[in-house]
Design brief:
The protein is α/β, with parallel strands linked by helices. It has a single domain (2-277), classed as Rossmann fold (3-Layer(aba) Sandwich). It is 37% helix and 17% strand. The protein has 9 helices and 10 strands. Strands 2-3-6-4-7-8-9-10 form an 8-stranded mixed beta sheet, sandwiched between helices. The protein has a two-stranded parallel sheet with strand order 1-5. A hairpin with a 5-residue loop joins strand 2 (50-55) and strand 3. The protein is globular.
């Protein structure tokens, strides 16, 4: 009986090896889903904006938008998720502007009008270029700068927060690591071989030295809710957690009143209005 199963087991082992090798060498295509087409601008939602061109430390040009309300109390550097581009995040940009916060929304290399091809190291450099623009070109104090990361963007924003600490960090629907995500979505591929792209946020969050707000939906079918809770539990604090509503791709702040209120309270605590309600000259 066992001998009869040997050919089947051998074939299964070969299949697993092939899948593992393919997953290892094609991880970028499994992690990043860039869209080159910008289908709209903030003008579509009634916002005045400035087209910005960023340059990373390794010379890659990035497309970005700077959107600033009349009386901004600070700025958000917004790192979006692994699919689409900044033109798919107009409602989130508008929400921040409505909270009197300027927004720098940028596309990773390979996304939108940005040059190059995406990679884990590249996304970190892209975020650092965006932060440098907010701090040095726009003159925003670091104590008035928030990093906001959506899904994969949360991993990017967290890594940047360890190197360039902001006033506070917000993680929306962020996973603990690519290895953990592989175990959820590709359980037949040995995880220890399939994680050349890592984004190990669970290890990093323990070293965070700024306030943290975690937003996650209990109904998220792509990034399990438990991952958001694990990131929150591992963070040293001060920290807060709020539930989003809906699934991963429709459980945003704009459809989650409780999470929107939690974000407003978080900003009021760590990004209060300037005295007199006006931006200093």
């Amino acid at each position: 009986m066992f001998r009869a199963l040997l050919p089947v087991l051998g074939l299964a082992a070969v299949v697993v090896i092939i899948l593992t090798v393919l997953a290892y060498f094609s991880q970028e295509s499994l992690v990043f889903f860039p869209d080159r087409t910008l289908r709209a601008t903030p003008a579509r939602v009634g916002l005045h904006f400035e087209d910005v061109r960023l340059t990373t430390a390794d010379g890659v040009g990035l497309g970005a938008w700077w959107v600033e309300p009349e009386r901004a109390r600070g700025a958000v550097v917004f790192a979006h998720g692994n699919a689409g581009n900044i033109s798919d995040r107009l409602d989130t940009i508008k929400l921040f502007v409505g909270l009197d916060v300027a927004v720098l929304a940028f596309d990773y290399r390979g996304y939108g009008s940005s040059d190059g091809s995406p990679s884990e190291t590249g996304t970190y450099r892209d975020m650092e270029a965006a932060v440098a623009h907010a701090l040095h070109t726009r003159g925003i104090d670091r104590e008035r700068t928030i990093y906001y990361g959506e899904s994969l963007g949360g991993a990017v924003a967290l890594a940047t927060a360890l190197r360039l600490p902001p006033a506070a960090l917000v993680l929306e629907s962020t996973f603990t690591s690519v290895r953990a995500m592989a175990a959820v979505h590709y359980p037949f591929v040995p995880g220890f071989l399939a994680t050349r792209v890592r984004y190990d946020s669970l290890a990093r969050v323990r070293g965070l030295r700024c306030p943290l707000l975690v937003l996650h939906s209990p109904d998220d079918t792509i990034v399990p809710y438990q991952m958001g809770r694990a990131l929150f539990d591992a963070a040293p604090g001060p920290k807060a957690f709020a539930d989003l509503e809906g699934d991963h791709n429709d459980g945003w702040l704009i459809v989650s009143p409780a999470a929107s209120n939690a974000l407003r309270a978080f900003l009021d605590t760590y990004l209060p209005p300037y005295r007199g309600g006006t931006t200093p000259e």
